[in-house]
Amino acid sequence: MIKAITVDDERHCLETLALLLKEYCPDVHLVEECRSGALAWEAISKYQPDLVFLDIEMPSMNGFQLLEQFEDIPFAVIFTTSYDQYAIKAIRFSALDYLLKPIDPNELILAINKYREHRRAPITEQIKLLLQQVNGKGQQFNKVAVPTAEGFELVPADELIRCEANDNYTLLFLHNNRKIVACRTLKEMEEQLGNFPNFIRVHHSYIVNLNEVIRYVRGEGGYLAMSDGSTVNVSRSRKESLLKWF
């Protein structure tokens, strides 16, 4: 059983999420529904939940400000939000999970399945990374939060040479022949790396760091020779955007 708390200042959002959890995720036991950050603080302290569904936009104390109250985060977080491009970008960059309102049952099931698979709270560095992005200080941080089977790694972006799709995972190839298996799809990695202008997707299976490209060899799509000795195919549909970078 997953012990959970929902946090949202809108009652109908709390009620809808409770109904969805009951119908589609019966192993999620909702111990409290909170309509403010202050009430959520009290409920989290009282119930010690495994998982918190956290609305971002709330009066007095928003979701990000609530997280700032904790020195360590002992619970997993799934943000719930209406479309907010900046907030979503910060959440993706920090490798945290979110659901868009109105919440789609299939997306909810996927988020809960992802939690079941890993059952872990965010590391302190992830929350710091998130809050730096939210507070407009993201440019000071040059690392990418990468979820792995063991937890998370903070990878310096300039050490990342290329990313390769591997079903629902992504292989990250770094300097010194180091490789990381990320528990993220290539699409999710692309969204995370969007803050770094030197990363570009050149194929449905590949993202490259343009600073690590040695040369481009022309062809139908062509291919790139990388600094680690590998070659990366370029798809015809992405060839033009790549050449614009050069």
Walkthrough of the structure:
With 246 residues, the chain is an alpha/beta fold. The protein has two domains: 2-134, Response regulator (Rossmann fold); 148-245, Beta Barrel (OB fold (Dihydrolipoamide Acetyltransferase, E2P)). Helix content is 33%, strand content 31%. The chain has eight helices and 15 strands. The chain has helices at 11-24, 37-47, 63-68, 85-93, 105-118, 124-134, 186-192, 236-245; strands at residues 2-7, 28-34, 51-55, 76-81, 97-100, 143-147, 152-156, 160-166, 169-174, 179-182, 199-203, 206-209, 213-217, 223-226, 231-233. The chain has a five-stranded parallel beta sheet, with helices on both faces. Strands 10-9-8-12-11 form a five-stranded antiparallel beta sheet. The radius of gyration is 20 Å and the shape is elongated. The modification 4-aspartylphosphate is found at residue 55. It comes from Flavihumibacter solisilvae. Residues 144-246 form the HTH LytTR-type domain. Residues 3-116 form the Response regulatory domain. This is LytTR family two component transcriptional regulator.
